[in-house]
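From the pipeline queue, job 12 of 40. The input is one protein chain; the requested action is below.

Action: predict structure.
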Amino acid sequence: MIVNNGWEQVSILKYIDLVKSGVQSFSGKKKYIATGSLETGKIIDFIEVDYKSRPSRANMEVKENDILFAKMKDTEKIFLISKEDENNLYSTGFAVLRINNYQKDQKVLPNYVYYYLKSDYFQNQKNRLCSGATQKAINVSKLKKVTFLLPPIDYQKKMIMTLESIEQLKQWRQESDKLTIDYLNNIFYRMFKQILSKSERIKLIDISDKSQKNTFTNGPFGSNLLTSEFTNEGVPVIYIRDIRDGIYNRISTVYVTQEKAGSLSYCQVFPRDILITKVGDPPGTAAVYPEDKDMGIITQDVIRIRVNKDLINPYLIMINSSAGVIPIRPIVFFSPQIVSLSSCFILTGICNS
């Protein structure tokens, strides 16, 4: 339907195809991107899989300029596929949109679709049409009912330029906020530098909660926590992506049952426990598990430390400050594919008290 001045209001699938699931056989390994491994506009995590042992949900292949969105209700995760990303596998929790005859008959631009999917106009339609008993999501038949407001190509290009400029400003703001946090951490260290230089250096193991076992621990090995055991509700599973800039902010959507969490008692996390990332750029980012959170379970790439809270407030252990970063650097291990921190070595790491 023509709305005005060449604008159309049509079904989202008039000029766009919905890509079917299925993966062609491949040798070696590929990166697999689960729904919890992606934020709008960026991939934040992945696992490497081979064709035979890949998770059942690792069943979506993509091409450059495809656009993904998470099918789950109340979940805004949108991603535009680049040349670099097209060799990855993606979860069937994503719908993959591909523009018809993109190079031959341009009716719609990939970047316009990307921004459209981010809009409240689309997200509200998607949420209203989601269904399901346990986890509500949109299916193909419902997706056909979603309407798409489509301006002429020239207008699409102008909108894209404007929105890209806004996103750049937003990114600069986020980077500025991160620098501010780093600056405040350094100020904190400098304020107490003289006191710290004269104070006793104490090993982390010496302030651990010795009334309990496993006060320093990794998450379980892969064979002890399988993807097939994940659920949509229950005890939250904590990944390194949930620990950012010194703050615990859970973006993962994976859970295990209470029974499974009970079998992994050494991996349990409770309020005021300290969480440290084993891998990342850089590894060693720490956060205190908030007091308003229920018990969680850490994954293999997270270290959990439980200190004796009668001796020290966990918020005062300065792992993220200059005083903490310097002694961590020597125990970081480098390999061609990963930078990691060993919990065995962090046992003898130092802190100030």
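Job complete. Residues 71 and 137 are 5 Å apart (CA to CA).
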